[in-house]
Structures are given as structure tokens and as C-alpha cells.
Amino acid sequence: MWKIEQLRKDLETIVNIDSGSFDREGVAAVGDFFEKKCKAAGFYTRRDPDTLALEVRTHEDGPIDILMLGHMDTVFPKGTAVEHPYREEGNLAFGPGVSDMKAGLLTMTTLAERLKADDPELRICLAFNGEEEIGSLATRDWMIQLGKQSRYAFVFEPGRDGGAMVKKRKGNIDLILKFHGVASHAGVAPEKGASAVTEMAQWIVELNKLQDLSIGTSVNVGLVKGGTAANVVPDYAECIVDLRFERMEEMEKVQKRVAELAKTPFVPNVTVDVEYQGIFGPMNPSKATEELIAKTNAKAAELGQTIEWVATGGVSDANHIAALGVPTLCGCGPVGGNSHNQKEYTELDTIQQRLELFYALMPELK
Fold first, then answer.
1. How is domain 4-169+283-365 classified at the architecture level of CATH?
2. Mean pLDDT throughout 67-77?
3. CB-based burial label for 117 (10 Å; 0-12, 13-18, 19+)
4. How many angstroms separate the CA atoms of 111 and 191, rounded?
5. pLDDT for 1
6. What is the rounded distance in angstroms from the CA atom of residue 24 to the CA atom of residue 130?
7. Global pTM value
């Protein structure tokens, strides 16, 4: 018996807590809610005071049969929950972070509570991340350590239209380039200057040559800035490049080319600082993952459900775990849409569908 009405009340409670990635008080409040809930159900809990991450286990230590992951942070600024609070319209629930991914957090917690009660030998761990929307820079190693202990992983990001789940995600790196040149008067002494903007422009041309959409590699220079005035040779410029790839060798190719460009500047006396941020390896389904997908499909069929499997260019914490070779499924949460905007929604009837599916599947994965 699933207590869906209570789950919806809890969903209203946590959606109405602002928990943007940089709102530590709000993220901590969501963590407090889940820690209290899980302790009351007899789970072991650990909190990291620095990252605000919450780890919940059925068994205090040791190997993990089922790892479930989700994030408590949203992309919305403080005050959004007051302006656009939780509301329901028919089968849809609206509110900041309702789909991405507070409904998923409650689904995995409700699922774990019942599995713990009905199958106490099943070793479950829930990982609540507090900074997924900004790249999981401080929590990545923690999740990887949990992944190394786990047999299977399920990430409760929102399901896609029609109940589809995600089996494949591209890898992603943000490349931050800072160019340092020499300022000079553009009319009086241009020869004394070294244009950081010109160097950056040459890099943009070279990096765009690495794009190969036929194999899933994309290069997007999404942000540029530099210069102070039209009559000043600019001594500083900066750009941020979004790189997406399906193959690790593509990431290595980009890193090699970046190193070459840094050694041989186009503009003499310009140097560049290179920073890689938010590195996500690609999530490509292994043979073991394909076997897990087949088991999931079989259970879904028994319940009268049909699951489609999709690939996406977006990343999630599933990338970190899948890269370890752990069979990993993503998009396991209730179906939702319009993530990251004020019309974000969750389809309420899909909450119970997900609960029933994974309750039938997970005990057979011991």
C-alpha cells in the first residue's frame, strides 16, 4: 500500500523550500527533512557539513546492493517558492524543482522505506547530493566511492514523456580559458600591445574545428568577454566552452589540442590559463546495463507498463557511476517536464507507477 496522499503533502512541503544550489540554508533544510524522515524509518544517516550531502543506508557499512541517487538543489533563486508555490491542477503538480527533482527524491525514499520493511536483507543506500546543478564538484568523489561499493545504481532524475528512461548520456566538460595580453593605445602604439581578444578569437576557430556531430562531439563557445575600450589593445579576455562527447577519446583529443595551442600562441606575448571544470564522463550502457534494462522491461510488462529508453546530451550524476562500470539507469523518477523554468511539472499518476516497478524489480537484484 503506497501512501500517495502523504507523499503529495510531503512534496508540497519540500517544493515550498527554496533550495537553489547556492542557498546553503535551503539545501540544508531539504536535507533536514529527509534525514528526519529516514531516521524515523530506522535508516542509518550521515551528513557532510561542508557539502550538505546526505547518505542514508539500511546497513551501517559494507557493500551496497542498490544505490539510489538524487539531488536536493534546484536552479531557482531564493524567493521563487513564494512567487510560484506548489500547486496541483488535475494530474499535474507544479512548483520550483517539483520534477527536477524533488518528486524523484520522495519516490526513492518511499521506495526504500517499503523495501527495508519487506526485505531487510537488501542492502540499500540513498545518496542526496546538494550541488548537482552546479556540477557536483565537491561531491563527485563521495558518489564515486559509493558507486564502487554498489552492484546497481538508479538515478531518480525525472522520467521523460511517456515514461521513458535514460540509458545513455554524453560526457561533458566546461573549459574555462583566460587570456593575458599586453595593453596599449590602439592608435598611438598598437605595436606595443598584445591582444588577448585576438588570441581568444583564434582559439575559438581552432576549437570549433574539433566538433564532429556525426560521432556526438559538440563544441559550444557559450560565453565570451574581454577588452575595455575600442581604442585600447585588450590585455584580458575570457571564454567558457561547453564540450559534449560520447567517447572518452574525444575528450582526450580536445585536451591534447588545448595543450598544443597553449604552447604556441598565435599572438606573441599572450599567455592563457586553462581550467577544466565539471568533468562528466559519458554514460554508455555496458553489457551488464543492457541486461538490467531487459529485466526492467520484463517487470514493466508484467505490470502493464511499457518503458522506452532514450539517449540525451545532458549530464547527471549517473555519468559518474556509470563510468565505473556499475549498471546504471537514469530518469527513474516520475515523469515530468519544463525543467528549469516556472512551468515545471510532475505527472502525479506516474509516482505510483515508478514505485510499483522498482519495488518489483529491486529485490531480484540481490
1. 3-Layer(aba) Sandwich (3.40)
2. 97
3. exposed
4. 68
5. 78
6. 9
7. 0.90
